[in-house]
C-alpha cells in the first residue's frame, strides 16, 4: 500500500484525518467544495485542523491558496492538557468524536477542554458521548480515568458551553466478541434546559416516559442549568439510552428550538429510541464507526460484533478503513431462520475482522 | 409480500461485502436505500457527465458562475450547481443521521409497539422462531 492516500470532496473530513494520524499515512484531499459558490474549507473544518495540530506534534498541514485542497502529514499524538474554542458553526460533538478515537493512542493522557455548543440536532450531543460512546471503549480495555465532565451547557446559536474530556492511554487494545445483544433491562437519560422555564426538563421527561413503558427501570434526570452554567442561548434537549443485559447500548436524542413544545421533543426522542431498538444489534448507529475502528486497531486476533443496519456514514467508514489500514470486514447477514441468539432482533449483521495489531509506541513502557 | 421480501433479500444479501469493498460504484446512500439495480453510478456519473458537457459547450465553470445569460449551456451548468448543492454539499459530516420526524408516528400503533416487546426483559422468553 502506498504512503499517500488521496480523496476528493469535503465529506468525511474528520475521519480521514483521524485515520491518517493513526496509520501514519500522508493524506491528500482535493476538490474541497471546488464547485461551490464559496469554495474551500469551512471555518469549523479549519478549526478542527487547528485542534488536531494542538494534540499532535510534528504534523504539517498544507492548505492550497484557494483552500480547496490540503496535504496532511501526520505527526505523533501527544495529548496532554489542551483547550480549544469550537466556535458556533458546529457543536462540540464534531470535535470530540475524533478525539475519542485518538485519545487512547496518545503519548500523554488527554485532558482537553472544549468550549462551544453542547447539544444540537446536527452532531451527537455531549450527553450521548458521555453515556453511550465512551462506555463502548471499556470493552476494548480502556477504562480507568475515561471521563467527560459537562460543567456548562451551551445551546445554539451562541453556545457558551464547556466540557472536559479525559482519556487514559493504552499500549494495545483487547479484541472483542460481542454478538449477544441481550434484552433491554433499563432506560436512562438526561433532559436539560437552560434559560427557559425550569419545568421544561420535567415536561420532556414525562412525555418520554409515557412512550417507554416497557420496563420499570426508567430514570431520566431532569436538570435545569442556572447562572453562568447555562450558556449564552436558551435551549433544551433530551438524550435517552437503553441498556441491555449484555451491556449493549441504544441511544436517541433530540434538541428543541424556539417555538417547539418540550412534550413533542420528549415524545419524538422516545420514539426515535424505539426505532433504534428495533434495528437491533449490540452496537447502535452512532457508535458503529468507533467500535469498528477499535476492532481494526485490535491485536492480531478475530473480533466479532453484531450490528443492526449499517448507516451510510459507516459504509464510507468501512471503505476508508480499507484505504488506510487494508483491513476488510467479513459481513454475514443473519435472517430470522439462522439467528443464533434467543430474542435477537431480526436481520442483523455479524461483522468480523482481524485486527492489525496496532501498538501505541508513544506510550512509555515501565 | 413474504415472497417478494425473500427474493429481495436473496438478491441483495450475498452482495453486501462486494458492494462495500468491490469496485465502489455505488455511494453509501445507494447501498443503504437499496437502489443498486436500476441506477448505477448515479451520483458520480451525473457529475462526470456534466463535466464532460462543460467542455462540449466550451464554458468554464468560472465563466458560468459570473454571467447568467440565456445560453443553453448555462442552464446545464446552473443545474449542475444545484445538483451538487443538494446531494453532495448537503451531506453533513456527522454520524448522527438526520432527524426524521416522518414515520415516527408509526409508534402510536399498539401492535407495532408490542412487536419489540420481546427485546426487553419484560417480554416473553419463548420467542417464535428462536
UniProtKB/TrEMBL annotation, chain A:
Q: Name one GO biological process term.
A: endonucleolytic cleavage of tricistronic rRNA transcript (SSU-rRNA, 5.8S rRNA, LSU-rRNA)
Location of the protein in the cell: Nucleus, Nucleolus
One Pfam family it belongs to: RTC
Q: Which SUPFAM superfamilies match?
A: EPT/RTPC-like (SSF55205)
One term of GO molecular function: RNA endonuclease activity
Q: Cite the RNA 3'-terminal phosphate cyclase insert domain residue spans from the record.
A: 180-278
Any one GO CC term of this protein is: nucleolus
Q: Which intervals hold domain RNA 3'-terminal phosphate cyclase?
A: 6-331
UniProt keyword annotations, A-Z: Nucleus, Ribosome biogenesis
State the family it belongs to: Belongs to the RNA 3'-terminal cyclase family. Type 2 subfamily.
Spell out the protein name for this chain.
RNA 3'-terminal phosphate cyclase-like protein
Organism field: Modicella reniformis
Classification lineage: Eukaryota, Fungi, Fungi incertae sedis, Mucoromycota, Mortierellomycotina
Amino acid at each position: 500500500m502506498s504512503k499517500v492516500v488521496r480523496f476528493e470532496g469535503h465529506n468525511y473530513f474528520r475521519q480521514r484525518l483521524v485515520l491518517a494520524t493513526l496509520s501514519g499515512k500522508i493524506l491528500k484531499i482535493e476538490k474541497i467544495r471546488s464547485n461551490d459558490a464559496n469554495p474551500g474549507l469551512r471555518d469549523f473544518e479549519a478549526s478542527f485542523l487547528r485542534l488536531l495540530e494542538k494534540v499532535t506534534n510534528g504534523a504539517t498541514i498544507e492548505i492550497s491558496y484557494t483552500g480547496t485542497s490540503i496535504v496532511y502529514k501526520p505527526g505523533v499524538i501527544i495529548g496532554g492538557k489542551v483547550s480549544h474554542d469550537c466556535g458556533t458553526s458546529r457543536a462540540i460533538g464534531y470535535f470530540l468524536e475524533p478525539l475519542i478515537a485518538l485519545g487512547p493512542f496518545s503519548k500523554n493522557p488527554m485532558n482537553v477542554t472544549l468550549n462551544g455548543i453542547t447539544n444540537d440536532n446536527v452532531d451527537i450531543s455531549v450527553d450521548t458521548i458521555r453515556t453511550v460512546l465512551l462506555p463502548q471503549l471499556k470493552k476494548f480495555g480502556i477504562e480507568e480515568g475515561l471521563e467527560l465532565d459537562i460543567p456548562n451547557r451551551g445551546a445554539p446559536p451562541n453556545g457558551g458551553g464547556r466540557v472536559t474530556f479525559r482519556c487514559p492511554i493504552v499500549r494495545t487494545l483487547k479484541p472483542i466478541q460481542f454478538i449477544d445483544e441481550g434484552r433491554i433491562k433499563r432506560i436512562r437519560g438526561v433532559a436539560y434546559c437552560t434559560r427557559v422555564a425550569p419545568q421544561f426538563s420535567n415536561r420532556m421527561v414525562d412525555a418520554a416516559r409515557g412512550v417507554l413503558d416497557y420496563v420499570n427501570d426508567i430514570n431520566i434526570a431532569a436538570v435545569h442549568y442556572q447562572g453562568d452554567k447555562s450558556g449564552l442561548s436558551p435551549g433544551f434537549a433530551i438524550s435517552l439510552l437503553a441498556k441491555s443485559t449484555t451491556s449493549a447500548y441504544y441511544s436517541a436524542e433530540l434538541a428543541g428550538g424556539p417555538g417547539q413544545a418540550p412534550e413533542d421533543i420528549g415524545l419524538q426522542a422516545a420514539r426515535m429510541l424505539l426505532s433504534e431498538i428495533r434495528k437491533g444489534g449490540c452496537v447502535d448507529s452512532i457508535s458503529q464507526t468507533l467500535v469498528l475502528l477499535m476492532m481494526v486497531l485490535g491485536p492480531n486476533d478475530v473480533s466479532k460484533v453484531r450490528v443492526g443496519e449499517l448507516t451510510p456514514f459507516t459504509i464510507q467508514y468501512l471503505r476508508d478503513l480499507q484505504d488506510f489500514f487494508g483491513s476488510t470486514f467479513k459481513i454475514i447477514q443473519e435472517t430470522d431462520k439462522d439467528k443464533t441468539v434467543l430474542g435477537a432482533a431480526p436481520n442483523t449483521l455479524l461483522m468480523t475482522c482481524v485486527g492489525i495489531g496496532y501498538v501505541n509506541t508513544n506510550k512509555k513502557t515501565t | 409480500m413474504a415472497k417478494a421480501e425473500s427474493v429481495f433479500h436473496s438478491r441483495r444479501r450475498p452482495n453486501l461485502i462486494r458492494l462495500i469493498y468491490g469496485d465502489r460504484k455505488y455511494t453509501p446512500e445507494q447501498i443503504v436505500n437499496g437502489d443498486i439495480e436500476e441506477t448505477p453510478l448515479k451520483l458520480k456519473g451525473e457529475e462526470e457527465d456534466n463535466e464532460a458537457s462543460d467542455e462540449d459547450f466550451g464554458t468554464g465553470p468560472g465563466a458560468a458562475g459570473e454571467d447568467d445569460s440565456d445560453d443553453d449551456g448555462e442552464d446545464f451548468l446552473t443545474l449542475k450547481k444545484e445538483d451538487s448543492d443538494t446531494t453532495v454539499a448537503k451531506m453533513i459530516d456527522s454520524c448522527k443521521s438526520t432527524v426524521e420526524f416522518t414515520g415516527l408516528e408509526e409508534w402510536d400503533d399498539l401492535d407495532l409497539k408490542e412487536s419489540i416487546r420481546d427485546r426487553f426483559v419484560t417480554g416473553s422468553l419463548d420467542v417464535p422462531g428462536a
